[in-house]
Amino acid sequence: MRSTLNRPTPEEMDLSGFRIFKHLTEDEVNRLNYDKTCSVYKKGSVIYREGSRLTGFYCITKGIVKVYKTGIDGKEQIIRFAKKGEIIAYRSLVSNELACTTAKVIDEAVLCHVPYQTLLYLVDNNSKFSLHMLQIVCKELKEANDYITDIAQKTVRERLAEVLILLKSNFELDENQTLQISLTREELANMVGTATESVIRLLSEFKQDKLIELQGRKIKFLDLQGLTKVANL
Hints:
- The chain is α+β, with helices and mostly antiparallel strands and 233 residues long.
- It has two domains: 11-151, Jelly Rolls (Sandwich), CATH 2.60.120; 154-231, Orthogonal Bundle (Arc Repressor Mutant, subunit A), CATH 1.10.10.10.
- The chain is 42% helix and 24% strand.
- It has eight helices and eight strands, in the order αβββββαβαααααββα.
- The strands form two sheets. Strands 1, 2, 3, 4, 5 and 6 form a six-stranded antiparallel beta sheet that branches. It has a two-stranded antiparallel sheet with strand order 7-8.
- β3 and β4 form a beta hairpin.
- α5 (156-171) crosses α6 and α6 (185-192) crosses α7 (196-208).
- It is globular and about 60 Å long.
């Protein structure tokens, strides 16, 4: 749910830093800013649910959002973690389908909702915007193809190592070489596509092999080269 206690700051409502909007004209930027609605979302808030009818897409200006699908048994399959500067809910909107994923806040976030009609206006009037949107969709398709290949050809150990490297690439490390996102073992398992028990066992093995160090939910990287070798990248 949205927070009623806090309102986004002007900086948190600023979309000028988003690459997808960098080629908009002054009139288009004015239209975007007039139509958008920005809100603060608490940790645990669900932005939209799988199967719902979307009315627009979302721009993340603060925080982290988990995007996932739910299996028949209710188990989550995490598609990705979206962060500041990224957009979500665009693919289902463009294809005029019900939402194919659920989006949930895992770190207090600010999201700006851009209505569907505004998206159509930008697509119709700005070819560079349309091309950038197409590139984002193609990138998502490539990631899906890579995941399917990994599931078919890599061991769980290799996939976990690859997921850790991917998280490092997306969220960077702090000065202590610790991953800048805190995930539960279940969430890691849902990214890898395996049981939580398997992730717990493999993380312990990585620790024994001095590839990583575990500090609760925090993961410190000790040997990135070794982890890359395990991931078979």
